[in-house]
Design a protein that fits this description.
394 residues; Dna Ligase, domain 1
Length: 394
């Protein structure tokens, strides 16, 4: 009988998108093929504590506090992979990589029972989607779903991402970057800088976050300071973007799902019609007013252009596995062709069965369960390909 692949589903974490991660993980755990995979849930609390398997299950339903984390067990790089063990202090992730002797039979037992073939890190936002967790997997020599350290980091930092998009000659909205320290030191100078380069309405965002957390639409100067303070509470780098369509019209919000490694493919194009002024956090997760349209009503030329741009964005950021690429399209004006702007890329998009990424692939002919299979295969393929790389002269 063929041995089942042991797959770790990693979720939770210290991000502002902790709850979104729980929803994604619960959906994957429900849908994954148990005939093919032995599935190990691995939860991380909001405080950063790694939980035992039983506690990980309860995190999906009861959110245990940090004090409830088992002091005798935490997941380390070696425990994830199986083999040598490391001392792993649940209270601090840096301790996960401290080498430990062979006398700790408790951890050795966990390593033996938990050793994984591949991990699916359903972690959204900082401390999971930004390259930090991917670095841990690389040190553990462990196959994992999604982009590597570089792709994850560039996909999280909107300012760096936009520099890569510009280098690839992909059209974007005008934008300005401001550091939190600059804003706090001289808000008037920062406001002048913004207004000298951009026109209202504006969107003020933390550079490193997702799910529209900390984002505000700013209609005029009176709203700018409050929006900057909110974004600055979530990140040291802020990005301010000029709105598409001007003050009187909303742009169309379009999304494409990309799947693959070195030869990525794009799904059909979908559209979100927000029930609010823009597709913010509440509109995404707490409102039924927003309407997804799949496929989006576009000409063949527009759809071809958007799908090609999605793949180009994926490659520009050195992504792998999966990503959702978001676009803004100008409202149609009489006698003018609507311009299409690349907005951003998300390297670990929401992954519930009703999230846009799986829905776009379902409409393209790939079921949710098959999508999970393909992502695991892509992770294993990428890890196998990496074994061809020499890291020393010997």
């Amino acid at each position: 009988m063929k041995k089942k692949l042991r797959v770790g589903i990693l979720f939770g974490g210290r991000s502002g998108e902790h709850e979104v991660s729980l929803l994604s993980a619960a959906s994957i755990l429900k849908a994954i093929n148990r005939q093919k995979y032995e599935v190990i849930p691995i939860g991380i609390t909001k405080e950063g504590h790694w939980l035992s398997v039983s506690e990980s299950q309860s995190l999906l339903t009861g959110s245990p506090s940090a004090s409830e984390a088992d002091p005798d067990f935490a997941v380390s790089a070696a425990v994830l992979r199986g083999g040598e063990t490391f001392e792993a202090a649940p209270a601090h992730p840096l301790h996960l990589l401290q080498l430990h002797g062979s006398g700790n039979s408790g951890l050795e037992q966990h390593a033996e029972t938990l050793g994984l073939d591949v991990v699916f890190p359903v972690l959204h936002g900082t401390f999971g989607e930004d390259g930090t967790m991917q670095g841990l997997f690389e040190l553990a020599d462990l196959a994992y779903v999604g982009s590597g350290v570089l792709g994850s980091a560039t996909g999280m930092d909107k300012l760096i991402m936009k520099q890569l998009f510009a280098a690839a000659s992909l059209p974007q909205t005008p934008h300005v970057g401001v550091l939190r320290s600059e804003w706090k030191a001289d808000p008037k100078r920062c406001a002048r800088l913004i207004e000298n380069h951009l026109r209202y309405p504006l969107f003020v965002k933390p550079a490193n976050l997702g799910s529209s957390v900390g984002i505000s639409k700013v209609h005029d100067r009176s709203e700018l300071a409050k929006a900057m303070d909110l974004a600055a509470s979530f990140d040291r780098k802020l990005i301010i973007e000029e709105g598409v369509g001007g003050p009187d019209a909303k742009p169309r919000e379009l999304e494409v799902a990309v799947l693959g490694n070195d030869s990525p493919e794009a799904s059909i194009v979908g559209e979100i019609v927000p029930g609010t002024e823009f597709y913010d956090y509440n509109a995404k997760y707490h409102s039924t007013a927003s309407v997804p349209i799949i496929p989006a009503k576009l000409s063949k030329a527009e759809e071809k252009q958007i799908r090609a741009m999605a793949v180009a964005a994926f490659r520009a950021c050195d992504c792998a596995g999966l990503a959702r690429v978001d676009f803004l399209m100008e409202p149609i004006r009489k006698g003018a062709k609507a311009r299409i702007f690349l907005n951003e890329i998300n390297t670990m998009p929401g992954f519930t069965s009703i999230s846009m990424y799986p829905k776009l692939w379902k409409a393209s002919g790939v079921s949710y369960k098959s999508l999970i299979d393909q992502l695991i295969r892509l992770a294993l393929d990428r890890h196998a390909e990496k074994q061809q790389t020499h890291f020393s002269k010997e």
